[in-house]
Amino acid sequence: MLKILFTKEEIEGAVKRLASLIGADYDMEKIIFICLLKGSFVFASDLIRKIKNPVEIDFMRVASYGSGTTTTGNVVIMKDIEVDISGKHVIIIEDIIDTGLTLKKIKDILEERRPKSLKICALLDKRARRKVPVEGDYVGFTIEDGFVVGYGIDYAEEYRNLPYICVLEGERV
Ligand code: IMP
Fold first, then answer.
1. 153 lies in a domain?
2. What is the CATH number of the domain that holds 72?
């Protein structure tokens, strides 16, 4: 069963707010956005269109959840970025920070490449489930535990096309 958590309008409001916070922090400097596939692609495409700074975008894909609903802690890089980030301002775009294991690993890898700055912009933050200390610098919504789908976020590859965010309840989770 799908229960709406955030409407299209609420998401639009959050994306607008995040974009203006980012714009204020970076003046008109160039920002490289790294979109974590696949869950962040809808969020990233809306967010970057609200940013006035010069931007570059690249994509990274890591395997974490597979088609189940619990993290393994085994984070494997499936697709790396192609852009050189050394000396550049970088913002990672993530759909959900859950245990934090995925972002911790990605942050460590990217830090080694010596960006000028490295921040995280996450649409959703399940703070109560954190296993490692990772903070989102820009967070759309803090949510309770529960499995969410929609707006790019899937369950076993389904539901990414929903324009809103739902909690998925019932026998399939
Ligand atoms: P973490 O490593 O535990 O922080 O996991 C983060 C990743 O797990 C996110 O990027 C999502 O891909 C996935 N994830 C965590 N919670 C959910 C959820 O409620 N729905 C769908 N995917 C989720």
1. no
2. 3.40.50.2020
